[in-house]
Write a structure and sequence with these properties.
The chain is of the alpha/beta class. Helices cover 31% and strands 19% of the residues. The protein has 3 domains: 20-81, no CATH class; 82-174, Arc Repressor Mutant, subunit A; 178-187 and 205-358, Leucine-rich repeat, LRR (right-handed beta-alpha superhelix), CATH 3.80.10.10. The longest helix is centred in the N-terminal third of the chain and has 17 residues, at 21-37.
C-alpha cells in the first residue's frame, strides 16, 4: 500500500523538470484530497496508466482547471481535518521555517514549552515526535534529513504550504509576524548604523497586544524601538539582514516590558560578557535561548523554576554554570557551547542535587574519573550527551580513567583532548 506521502514524493519526482507553480499546486491539491478522502492505492494501481486519472476523477473540475486558485481551499480542508492538538504544532512550523530546514529537536522544544504536548508515560519528546510523524504522514510536512538511526532530523514545508501556514497564523491570531515592512520599522534607516537613529523623535513607543510575536528585523532596530508586550507570552527573534553579531546589545527592556514571557528566543543576539542577572524576573519562562561572549550564568537563573529548555550560544571559550542550576528540576534540555563547566564544591553536591528531568545535555567539560562520574550520576534520565573529557593535571593517574556512563541510555558524543 502507498500512503499519500509516497504518492506525492513519486509524482513530484516524476514531474520535477516541469517545476511550475501550477504543477505544484495541482500536486498538492491531489495529495491533500487523497489525505482528506482517505484514498489509498496499491502497487499495481500505481503502475496503471489510469492511476492519476483515477485521482483526478475524485477532484472537482474547478481544482483541475484552476489549481493555484483552489490550492488554498484544498489545504484549508486538510487543515480542518487535523485534530486540534496538531493544529498548533503545524502553525508553529510556519514560524520556524524561514526558508530553511526546521530542526526537529528545536521544534519539539518549542512545542513542549508552549504546552502543546501532553504529559504521558512516554515522555514529552516521544509524544512530540509522534505528532510530527502524523503531520508528515498527512503530507503537510516534508522530511529533509534523517539521523543515522532513521529518525527525522530535519523537515521542511512546501512553499505553498508555508504560504498557507503563515496566512492561517495571521487569520487565527496565532502569531503576529513583525518584519521590516511593518510600522514603525519601515521608517528606520537601512544602514548598519540604526543604533544612531533617534527613534523617539520619529515615532511613539511600540506596543504589541499579541500573545505570540515572531520578529524578523535588524537587531539594532528592535533594540532601538524598545517594544513592549504586557500580554505577550512568546517572543521569537530572527535577524533579518545583519550578520553574526560582533557588538553586544542591551536587551534590558525585555525584563521590564515582557514580564510574562514563557518563550524567549534571542539566540542570535550578542549579550556581551555578562549574562543579565535580571533574567530571574521572568519566572514564567519555559524556553530561554541567548548568545554572547558570556563567561558565566548568574545564580538568579534558579528563579526560573518552570524552565524546560536553556540554550546559551557562547561565542568564545568556557561558560560556567552556577551551583543553583540544580534547583531547576523541571529542566529537560541544557545546551551550552562552546563548552560549559560546573561551579560547585564536593561538599555542596548533596543528595538533593539531581536534575531528574534532564534528557539532553551539551557540552559539559568534565575531568576524567570520579569527578565526571559524580556529575553524570546525578542526571539519571539523561538520553543524549555531548561532552568533553579531559585529564586533570591535579589528579593522580588513578583518577584519569574513562568515566562510567551507565546512565546515558541513547546517544553519546565524546571528545577527550590529547
Amino acid at each position: 500500500m502507498l500512503s499519500s506521502q509516497q504518492i506525492l514524493k513519486e509524482y513530484l519526482e516524476d514531474n520535477k523538470t516541469a517545476g511550475s507553480r501550477k504543477g505544484n499546486c495541482l500536486s498538492l491539491s491531489r495529495i491533500a484530497s487523497c489525505s482528506c478522502c482517505g484514498c489509498w492505492y496499491t502497487e499495481n494501481d500505481r503502475k496503471s496508466q489510469n492511476w492519476w486519472k483515477a485521482i483526478a476523477d475524485n477532484l472537482s473540475s474547478q481544482i483541475i482547471d484552476n489549481p493555484e486558485a483552489r490550492c488554498k481551499e484544498v489545504l484549508d480542508l486538510s487543515y480542518k481535518h487535523l485534530p486540534e492538538y496538531l493544529k498548533s504544532c503545524f502553525l508553529y512550523l510556519g514560524v520556524l521555517n524561514e526558508d530553511r530546514d526546521i530542526l526537529v529537536s528545536k521544534s519539539v522544544r518549542f512545542w513542549i514549552a508552549e504546552g502543546f504536548i501532553p504529559e504521558t508515560d512516554k515522555g514529552f519528546e516521544d509524544v512530540a515526535e509522534a505528532f510530527l510523524i502524523d503531520l508528515i504522514d498527512r503530507s503537510l510536512v516534508i522530511i529533509s534529513k534523517r539521523r543515522s538511526n532513521g529518525k527525522v532530523r530535519a523537515c521542511r514545508l512546501h512553499d505553498l504550504v508555508l504560504d498557507f501556514c503563515k496566512s492561517k497564523t495571521e487569520d487565527e491570531n496565532f502569531f503576529q509576524l513583525i518584519t521590516r515592512s511593518d510600522n514603525p520599522y519601515a521608517s528606520f534607516p537601512s544602514t548598519d548604523y540604526g543604533f544612531e537613529f533617534d527613534f523617539y523623535s520619529h515615532s511613539s513607543p511600540v506596543s504589541f497586544a499579541s500573545y505570540r510575536l515572531a520578529v524578523s528585523l535588524k537587531r539594532s532596530h528592535l533594540v532601538e524601538s524598545k517594544p513592549s508586550g504586557l500580554a505577550t507570552r512568546s517572543l521569537v527573534f530572527y535577524a533579518s539582514t545583519d550578520s553574526e553579531p560582533k557588538r553586544p546589545y542591551d536587551i534590558s527592556f525585555i525584563w521590564h516590558n515582557f514580564k510574562l514571557l514563557r518563550v524567549l528566543d534571542f539566540e542570535c543576539f550578542n549579550l556581551g560578557i555578562s549574562f543579565p542577572v535580571e533574567i530571574g524576573i521572568l519566572v514564567q519562562l519555559r524556553y530561554l535561548a541567548v548568545g554572547g561572549y558570556l563567561k558565566s550564568i548568574p545564580q538568579s537563573i534558579a528563579n526560573l523554576r518552570k524552565l524546560k529548555t536553556l540554550i546559551v550560544k557562547g561565542l568564545s571559550g568556557k561558560i560556567t554554570l552556577p551551583n543553583t542550576i540544580w534547583r531547576i528540576t523541571s529542566l529537560r534540555h541544557l545546551h551550552v557551547n562552546l563548552h560549559v563547566a560546573f561551579d560547585l564544591d564536593a561538599e555542596e553536591l548533596g543528595d538533593s542535587s539531581i536534575l531528574e528531568s534532564l534528557v539532553s545535555f551539551s557540552c559539559p567539560s568534565l575531568s576524567c574519573g570520579e569527578d565526571a562520574e559524580r556529575i553524570i550520576k546525578r542526571l539519571p534520565n539523561l538520553c543524549k550527551l555531548s561532552c568533553i573529557f579531559y585529564e586533570s593535571p591535579d589528579s593522580s593517574m588513578n583518577c584519569n580513567h574513562f568515566p562510567r556512563l551507565n546512565c546515558v541510555t541513547q546517544d553519546i558524543l565524546l571528545w577527550k583532548p590529547s
